[in-house]
Amino acid sequence: MSLLVVGSVALDTVETPFGSVKDALGGSAIYISAAASYFTSPVRLVGVVGDDFPKEHIQFLESRQIDIDGLQIVRGKKTFRWGGKYHYDLNVRDTLFTELNVFKDFDPVIPSTYKTSSYVCLGNIDPLLQRKILRQINRPRLVVGDTMNYWIETKPAELAETMKSMDVLIVNDSEARLLTNEPNLIKAAKKIIKIGPRIVIIKKGEHGATLVTEETIFSAPAYPLENIFDPTGAGDTFAGGFIGWLARTDDISVNNLKRAVVYGSTLASFCVEKFSIESLRELSYLKVHDRFLAFMDLSRFDDER
Ligand code: AMP
Prior knowledge:
- It is a single chain.
- By secondary structure, the chain is of the alpha/beta class.
- The chain has one domain: UDP-N-acetylmuramoyl-L-alanine:D-glutamate ligase.
- The chain is built from ten helices and 13 strands.
- The strands form two sheets. The chain has a nine-stranded mixed sheet, sandwiched between helices. It has a four-stranded mixed sheet with strand order 3-2-6-7.
- Residues 8, 10, 12, 26-28, 82, 98, 124-125, 148, 150, 232-236 line the site of adenosine monophosphate.
């Protein structure tokens, strides 16, 4: 099924205890669409870059068969840039800078071919822009949304309004607490459900992810990796794997949502093994499926003695 992805397209400068990169390809829309492209087609990207955006990155998107008709290239302006630094505990990250650049006056216009997209993933950008995009799409089957501390702190009212149009909200643990003022994550998820989305997924870095609905709680571990180089984009890659699987199967039953959480975690586990999007360049559906099976073994047990 068709999937529309909107989010940031970025040049990231990242430092981890294991190395650093400058102006590497990043942004929520990039990670989401690259991950989803292993599951479904067409993946339609909506975003904006400046004329400093390297051609090789466009070629990468094309090589993944990602439709970039909705990617605006603004002359004379710079691409969005973000800088982050990870601590020894890779779950802790400081944002060093956020340069909105082209995003400051981005007016997303959806190409007419995108309007009938069945699945929509609103990557982490200004919640006002997320809403502007949703208004241009004819009744999608499922809307998954993401956000981050930057928007929770600077645009809380706009974010709450946008959340009313989401079916699924994906946030990490600290964002869930910040959003609801609630330290307990299950209570926080239930508070979020009262704001709008009927499904909440809380990511907990190397401790996995939990899906919460009014009736269900499902917890998936993270894949136990020995080498994690760069956690940047893991959350977005999770979102891309999650919605990509749902779009592929066109099944939003609870059981399939659980599978989608594990596929999201599977894709995220590949993402963190290399800097930037490097590991999302060279995957295959088979590789992904093998790790999905390994995931199942991780927490399978029975009560026979
Ligand atoms: P994640 O590690 O999943 O939280 O995502 C990291 C990505 O989010 C990076 O590639 C950044 O370019 C992008 N990003 C960081 N801050 C923002 C922001 N305020 N708006 C949109 N995208 C952002």
